[in-house]
Design brief:
The complex is a heterodimer of chains A (about 450) and B (about 170). Chain A contains 9 helices and 8 strands. Chain A is globular and about 75 Å long. Helices cover about 25% and strands about 10% of the residues of chain A. The N and C termini of chain A lie far apart (about 65 Å). Chain A has an 8-stranded mixed beta sheet, with helices on both faces. Chain B has about 170 residues and is an all-alpha fold. In chain B, about 55% of the residues lie in helices and about 0% in strands. Classes of the chains: A alpha/beta (about 450), B mainly alpha (about 170). The interface between A and B is large, with 58 and 51 residues.
Amino acid sequence: MKRRAFIRKAGLATAGMFAAPYLLPEGRLFAGTGDRIVNHVVVVLFAGGVRQQESIDQAYLSAQGLSTTGNLLRNMLVGNEPSSNLVYMPWQPVLTTPLAKQGTLFKEMRYASGPTGHFNGHTAAITGNYTQSSLDLNQNPDFPTVFEYYRKHTDPARSAVNCWWMSEGLGPYPALNYSRNGMYGAMYGANYIRPATTFGSYGLDYLNDAITFQPDDVTKIESIKSFLDKNFDRTAADYPGIINTADDREKIKAFIYDTLNKTSAGQIEWPLPPGISTAELTGDLTNIAYAWQVLQKFMPELLVINSFDLDACHFNFTNYLSYMHKADYGVGWLWNKIQQDPVLKNDTIMICMPDHGRNELPNSVYDVNGLRAFDHTSDNNSRRLFGLIVGPAGKVKQDQVVGNDADPVGETIDLVPTIARILGFHEYIPAGLLPGRILEEAFV
Amino acid sequence: MEHRIQFAAWLLLFCGCILSGSCKKDISQQVIYDNVIYEITPVSVYANNAEKTKQKSAEHFISILYSNLTDKSIPADDLGNLAELALSVGDKELMNRVLLENMLADPQISIPSNEEMRSNITAFVNGTYLKFYLRNPTAYEAYYFQDLINHDSTITSEMVYAAFAQSNEYLFY
């Protein structure tokens, strides 16, 4: 049949007319905006379970019976790289000054309660509450997420495009963009995306040839849809998932198509050192690359991403080291990009924290280099983690180390209150929902 | 003894004649189709949209949309891949729209042409309601579309399909 197809960006022109005024359940038109430290927060859940030994302690292979030590995370931490027994390809740091010198390092934090599983670790970090559930339940958490606190208690004119959750993998992670809490929920959720699928082979295969209606046609389709919806008493709000305004939805749709086009045209900028092939990309680096696309396009106030390839440690210690080194490069690369952006440059705080730690003792698996693998089964070592808060001097204390093994400072559940403090909505969160505290030590 | 055998044989022959159909009864069978949609699998028609109370899952939506647009079942691999795509974006309505726009560009789709639509609007509207909503339009709904298509020459069958596929009722069954 004859079909009209037009350039994809045409639909944007009609978008603005559908935006509706926003009234909070409390009856106020806008939530209050408190005193902010900066206007943008980027969180990297340096996830997959990271041992303190190979990260903060820079022990490298000492747990494997070899004496070689060294710093795998040269963009994040201060310290020399391993000088021998290399089982990974060292990349020159992208940052001239490690992040630990551009902020505050919480050297020894605790994941204090609950199983040290990835679902639990992510949930605790994103909701500010430990969870005892031991299963990867593919359902929204009970406690509100940081995204819902942000959207409900901050000026809602900024809407959901200002708030993103991007995961390296799928599994239960898409469900972490909003909770089942009756006071919050999907209407305050973050825009979730898993770039490896949306912009990966599936996206390129199935989303590569969309019809685009003219703006006038879009208006007429909306008019017909409106008629149809008036004759049906269930609304789209019943449909699971967050709801964007029509304006935002058009922007996100255009972003998806534009990013797919850039991907297929080889125009995505990857977090790789000069001369390194894209064959070296990991899922973590892919997630970071597309996080930068989101940051550039929407300048969100709150962006949370994770890495996950480090979980290879269950069966391949060599890959674990390599992926940790690459994820560190990605974190440095992202910070470098932020510093080159005139809007984000002096107005962004980045927080890096693992979902949880990893066991002290290895399991029974050896990799090709004869290195032993480690699980995370809630021993004390798997409750050890670190936190790195970096930002502009004058806002974030520079080159400061807080806490040590004998005197841990900070917990996983402190992430949410700390983000709330940075973006100025902590005082509006109802009492009793957040057991953690603000990591005030990091701020000037 | 021999008489008994002959008697039994005659008795069997007599009964056989009776049972073998000296009188045949005409049997008529009335086949009632509760609904026929484009000669695919007969399905029940909803009496009205109030009966639709359950949300479609992502897989339901994709599978049914594909069938509605192509008159074919979606291959299992494609369904799995598209379901993963749907899962990878948090705004489900947005992703449904993206998937729809891409299916509409698929050369395999089967949509009545504009000429077909305008040549028999009643049939087109009834067919569209049955295809997407599994029910007949109410008189008011039928009038709305008659009036819309008659008075706006820019309305295309594709636009009508797009509106139905994005409507709230289509998300429920």
